[in-house]
Each structure stands twice: as structure tokens, then as C-alpha cells.
Specification:
alpha/beta; FAD/NAD(P)-binding domain; 2 domains; 7-stranded mixed beta sheet; 28% strand; elongated; binds NADP nicotinamide-adenine-dinucleotide phosphate
Length: 304
Amino acid sequence: MAGEDLIVVGAGPAGMTAGMYGVRSGLKTLVLEKGISGGLSNEAPEIENYPGFNRVGGMELASKIKEHVSRYVEIRELEKVEKIEVSSNELVVTSDKNSYHTRAVVMSTGTRHRRLGAKGEAEFAGRGVSYCATCDGFFFKNKPVAVVGGGDSAVREALYLQNLGCRVTLIHRRDKLRAERYLQQKLVDAGVTIRWNSVVKEIKGDKVVKSVILDSKGSKGEGAESELPIAGLFISIGEEPNSELAAKMGVALDANGYIITDKSQRTNLKHVYAAGDVTGGVRQVVVACAEGAVAALSAYNDLL
Ligand code: NAP
């Protein structure tokens, strides 16, 4: 069990960048990832605001970052960290494959898709209910689908699906979208139908999804129930932090479960840092990368 200086947990854009900055600072660094590198950025159909790239697929950007950082740092994919123990002079990171002694840890464990909680959601998951248009959209080509949500992700997914040839209805619980104005305009230009003030009450079907029951509020606040025939339902209503591991080791979280850090990405625990979406705030790839760099440099400065 050779000792490390820095172990990075999670290889999304934040973790990968932290790994590269760790090694370049001179820290013996390892990145552990329970799945494949890239995190949720792999699912972004298009990214148009990462400086230096006019337009790039999320998976393409993640693989470019991986290719770049792998010149410096080893990323061990399909290795899930199960426990991190804190003692006075080191941390012990236990994964499903190994155990590591390290002087510092960066938590960059990202977020997961929020569930809607509608009747039928779990039953039809993978049979018409999806949380990723880039992963599953192809199966719904030329079919009617709905996207739930009003943020950047929902609008991006709706545009992606419409572009694939699906007939898309966006279902939003309010009468105003949260997404960037730029994306809202693209939605109008693409001719996506929007069902305002509507919530999905139930997802219906037999072997696969056939329709959703919507509860909608009219202009005078009156309720009305309707059935919308669809072949696929894409749920894009935000994210929840993967912060359980951090919580178990005693890292302080905010009221929504995101890891609290200072401007140097330090948590409340000595030599434990956090970066990227798991810290909440502005969730953009450029911010995740920046936080990863700051976290690794803070570790370097603290370990000097
Ligand atoms: P988000 O911004 O939190 O939006 C979630 C949307 O889902 C909101 O419109 C919200 O409605 C709705 N919602 C939440 N819970 C719901 C429920 N139980 N039932 C029905 N609707 C519900 O999440 P996001 O769109 O996934 O984006 C996450 C972050 O990534 C944001 O910071 C976003 O800016 C960023 N992002 C950026 C881009 C980009 O191209 N710049 C692309 C993707 C993501 P309300 O509006 O009523 O709250």
C-alpha cells in the first residue's frame, strides 16, 4: 500500500483537472472513478460556452480533457470509493478494489439526476422514461416525446430531440423558463410545443410508455387533467449532489446537501477539498475545471 499525496474522487471535468494540477505541482496523485471519466458532462448534447470551443459535444469535450490530463495523471475507472477514514496525519481511502493511504483528498463526486416522483416513473425507467436524451434519444426518432423541466438542461434536451426528428412537447410546471435567454429563443425558433403550468401526474403504458397524465393550471388558476400520447418521457428537472461519502467522513454540507467550501475549495476537514458540481453554485464545465485546479493547488500549498 504505497502512499499517495493526493487522491481525487470522481473523474468529471473537476476531478480530471484536479488530477492534472496535482501532478504538475509535484504531488503523487491518483484519480479514482466509479464509472467512466467525464461525469454528467458526457450527457450534454452540445456545449457552446466552454471558451475556445464554439460548439462541442459534452462527450467529445470530456474525452479531450481525459486525453489531455492522462499525459500527467492516472485515472482508474470502474473503481468505486466506498469509504474514507480521517486520522490526524493521513486519510485512508478504501475502494472496491484497493486501499490507499494519502495525505489529501479532493471530493469531485458530481451530481445525479433528480427523480420526478410521478406514478409509473420507476416502473417505466428504461422503457420510455429516460434522464439522458443524448444516450436514448435515437430510439425515439420520428416519434412524439416529452421533456419535463424548464432549465438549461431541459431546453437543450428538447432541442436535441427535435433536431433528431422527434415531435417534442416541453412540459413545465410554471409559465416562465429558467433556461438562458439564448436557449429560449432557440426553442421558439425550433417550434417546440410548450405545455405551461403543467405537472406530470402519472406515466402510463403497457410494456413501454404510451402517454402521460398532466395536471395543468388554466389562466384563472383552474385545474384540468389531460392525457398526452407519447413514446418517450425525458426527465430533466435538475440534479442532486453525490455527497453521501463526504457526509459520512464528516464533511460539512449545506441545506441542499452540497459540500461547503471556501474560495480555495477547502472543506471543514483538514486536507479535504471539494470541487465541481458537488459544491453547488454555478454548474458549468468551465467552473468545475477551475475549481478542480484551485483545489489541487490548495492541497499543494497546504502540504508543502
Ligand atoms: P435547473 O437549472 O435546476 O432547472 C431545473 C428545472 O426543473 C427548473 O425549471 C425547475 O422548475 C424544474 N423542476 C425542478 N423540480 C421539479 C419537479 N419536481 N417537477 C417539475 N419540474 C421541476 O437544472 P438543470 O437544467 O439540470 O441545470 C443544472 C445546472 O447546469 C444549471 O446551473 C444550469 O445552468 C447548468 N447547465 C447549463 C447548460 C448550458 O448550456 N449553459 C446546460 C445544461 C446545464 P422551476 O423553474 O419552476 O424551478
